[in-house]
Amino acid sequence: DVKVTQSSRYLVKRTGEKVFLECVQDMDHENMFWYRQDPGLGLRLIYFSYDVKMKEKGDIPEGYSVSREKKERFSLILESASTNQTSMYLCASSSLSSGAMYEQYFGPGTRLTVT
Amino acid sequence: AQSVTQLGSHVSVSEGALVLLRCNYSSSVPPYLFWYVQYPNQGLQLLLKYTTGATLVKGINGFEAEFKKSETSFHLTKPSAHMSDAAEYFCAVGETSGSRLTFGEGTQLTVNP
């Protein structure tokens, strides 16, 4: 079974704090993704990575950065948290093999509240 | 870029009734199409996918979806709803380059006893 784990299920941070969200997958997947989920907006892609040390901006990268130093780990960083970053954050991974391309496996999510 | 439209942000059915969740997509090439389900306080789980071949795709928990190219649709159905089907459902399409998925806004399914 593919397993994607996220470091926290719930997180409460103060405005201006630096926030790290960690994601680990155990299936040797090349691709990893960070989304935020807000009611009525579905899932919006923040950043993704297709290899170690590689990253690509998604649709809403402003206010976020990412790090991928190891294949299994993909971190999302909020440099200076703001209240409009209160959201559910979902990590996902997928393989580059042709038969499984696009099929993403998701972690349980981190519900971040910024006060 | 691709786009996905899910008609109806909330759908309510009675237990035992037909479930129909609508999804339309825009794509300039034959698409890869997916339905995911999200139960409360959980991540997304793959229900079914269409890549090539048979246009009627069967998934887990009795769900199925039919790819209709002429209508650019990929509607999700289940003949008889169960209380445990209450969840949020997301339709997604694979982008033409890379491994990205574009998701619809989601449909919250309520099943009434």
Shape field of chain B: globular
Query: What structural class do the secondary elements of chain A suggest?
Result: mainly beta
Radius of gyration of chain A: 13 Å
Oligomeric state of the chains in view: heterodimer
What is the chain-wise order of helices and strands of chain B? EEEEEEEEEEE
The pair of chains with the biggest contact is: A-B, 26 and 21 residues
Task: Kindly report the average pLDDT value of chain A.
Answer: 93
Q: What is the number of helices of chain B?
A: 0
Largest sheet of chain A: 7 strands, mixed
First-to-last CA distance of chain A: 37 Å
Q: Give the tally of β-strands of chain A.
A: 11
Q: Overview of this structure, please?
A:
The complex is a heterodimer of chains A (115) and B (113). Chain A has 115 residues and is mainly beta. Chain A is 0% helix and 52% strand. Chain A contains no helices and 11 strands. In chain A, strands 2, 4, 5, 6, 9, 10 and 11 form a 7-stranded mixed sheet that branches. In chain A, strands 1-3-8-7 form a 4-stranded antiparallel sheet, with no helix packed on it. In chain B, a hairpin with a 6-residue loop joins strand 9 (87-94) and strand 10 (101-103). Chain B is mainly beta and 113 residues long. The A-B interface holds A 4, 9, 31, 33, 40-43, 45, 48, 50, 56, 58, 90, 92, 94, 96, 101-109 and B 9, 32, 34, 36, 41-46, 49, 90, 94, 98-101, 103-106.
